[in-house]
Design goal:
Largest sheet: 3 strands, antiparallel
Distance between the termini: 52 Å
Order of helices and strands: EEEEEHHHH
Strand content: 5-15%
Number of strands: 5
Shape: elongated
Number of helices: 4
Radius of gyration: 25 Å
Structural class: mainly alpha
């Protein structure tokens, strides 16, 4: 997760940086041995948690200043400077296409971004976000899963009385009987 630059109570400026999301799990941190900071490539070295409330010093793997492209200055040091490599990579990986400059990615990073794009598209399709879903990018198995989810969502919409969302032509004869029974119950009749 990105942390904006800030000034501590003692007046010390902390530059913008990336850190792993806090979740209380010592083993789920870039500074822990066996993990690697994705922005710097530095392997973690810590083997045990520090005392409660221990702060990780600036520059450690869990407190990584944003690197800059060659010839660029760090935005923390010069306001208005251009996007850093880490910021651009994060924008691309997170799917912020308006902020992502793919031409600045290495071939390996571009493949990583493309894999994430496909994964995000499949999830959008599975979740029913039709405006974000590009079905032509799905594998045959993903398409089958998406179609099954669409049918389940449609049945739920029909059963719950959302007539604007219900596509009766998608229902099986048994599902249609269930929907008609639910409609009778909502109208105050017997199922």
């Amino acid at each position: 997760m990105r942390v904006r630059g800030y000034v501590r109570k003692d007046g010390t400026y902390v530059a913008p940086h990336y850190r792993s999301a806090p979740d209380g799990n010592f083993w789920n941190n870039w500074s822990t041995r066996g993990n690697v900071n994705p922005y710097t490539g530095k392997p973690g070295t810590r083997t045990q948690p520090g005392p409660s409330g221990t702060r990780i010093p600036s520059g450690s793997p869990s407190h990584t200043p944003l690197p800059s492209y060659p010839g660029e200055s760090n935005p923390a040091l010069s306001p208005g400077a251009t996007t850093t490599a880490a910021q651009n990579l994060q924008s691309c990986v997170d799917g912020y296409s308006m902020l992502c400059k793919r031409e600045l990615l290495t071939p390996e990073r571009l493949r990583q971004v493309q894999v994430n794009d496909l994964r995000r598209n499949a999830q959008s399709c599975l979740d029913g976000y039709s405006m974000l879903c590009k079905r032509e990018l799905l594998t045959p198995e993903q398409l089958r899963q998406v179609q099954a989810n669409d049918l389940r969502r449609n049945l739920r919409s029909c059963l719950d009385g959302y007539s604007m969302l219900c596509k009766r032509q998608w229902l099986t004869p048994e599902e249609l009987r269930l929907v008609e029974g639910a409609e009778r119950v909502r109208a105050g009749g017997a199922p």
